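Limitations
The structure tokens in this dataset are predictions for the assembled complex, not deposited experimental models. Users should treat interface geometry with appropriate caution, especially where small molecules or nucleic acid strands are included. An illustrative entry is reproduced here so readers can see what is and is not provided.
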Amino acid sequence: MRQLGQLEAVVMGRLWDWARPASVREVVDDLQRSRAIAYTTVMTVLDNLHRKGLVAREKDGRAYRYTAALTREEHAAALLEDVLAQSPDRGATLLRFVGQLSADDQVRLRAALADAEAEDA
Amino acid sequence: MLAPLSLLAFAVLAATAGPRLLLRARWVHRAPGWGVLAWQGLAGSVVVAVALLGVTLAVPLPPVAAGLSRLTGIPTTTVVAHYLTPAGPEVAALAALACLGLALRLAWLAVAAVLGTVRARRGQHDGLRLLGREHPDGYVVLDHATPLVYCLPGRHPRIVVTSAARAALTPHELAQVLDHERRHLSSRHDLALAVGGVLRRAFAPVPLLRTLLATAHEQVAVLVEMQADDAARDPRGLARALVALACGAPAAPPSGLAAGDVAALARVRRLTGGAAGWSHPRSAAVGSGTAAVLAVPVVLAAAPLIEMVLIGCRAMLA
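Predicted assembly:
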């Protein structure tokens, strides 16, 4: 299961790098340059990714061609949405080093640090 | 009769005076770990007082009285006589229902919170596996233009640093931030926040508890940040990192719904202000004070029982 997860990351990486529809065969051929891997394994991985909504697929003759549903940047942005959301219950899921500040607070924060540094100088 | 009244009086006093005292106390920011304990003790004490208020009101009901009689060995009639209120059986039944309702609500919200947290964390872990790059210093790098550092507690703890955050910090500053995050993970601060959040929502319908539990939850959130700040070997370096990350991110809308990070300024002042002393006697005072506050509602609720036992002893001696 863990290996499948890592393989998902590798396959997604390929689809993101290519940024065009790719068949299972193309992915297999590319992966086989660096490791031994079965066609059915890659098919299972792409099927899983499709089930999770991470890739879109379209019929091309008898096979499917796969593309990443979101770009890398879009996916990262979606991931950080949870982090940036100001929910009082977020602390149970993840802890953020420092929250978002208003422009006024940013000025105050800089001044507080500058005051402290000036005192030492 | 006396038990419910004294519990109510205690709950009102603790819920109004307690937060005022703790918000004004300077030692709370100086020893944030003890501060967390004090807030949790205060919140727990008032929650227990309100719960026991319901229970003591419900004691005259036959099933409750019979149970208590079996537990203590005191005859049912005596138990009822000591807890009887002029309010009558309707109020007793109402109190029992309210207790049961709140207990169910608490259990339901706790389960929902656990499931929600598990799901949200799994989403993060899945995304990080696809997008993140493992760094040898024990964190994951995520390519993104917003400077952010956060940690995912749990069975597979993770610290996430965006590429923009890495660019905004010197290696020394980043090391301080990582110390901060590691303290969050090792102290399981997420558990304190999760319990606080569940209690806050579960008792929101109880007027006395609504404000107290919201304040306690918010204060604990601030104090765990300060406690994690104390893990950094170079407080000044951490303060610089905090300012760099907070000011490097886009500013929040000035009057948005989110209050933003109210603690950031207090944290920077604290980190740059030099360490103030803390002593063992102070720890002992806060610890025993918290224990006392927690013991009060239990003693008040059990007072009629204690009285019964004492009367029993005197009767045997006579």
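Some entries come with short summary sentences. For this one: Chain B has a mean pLDDT of 91.
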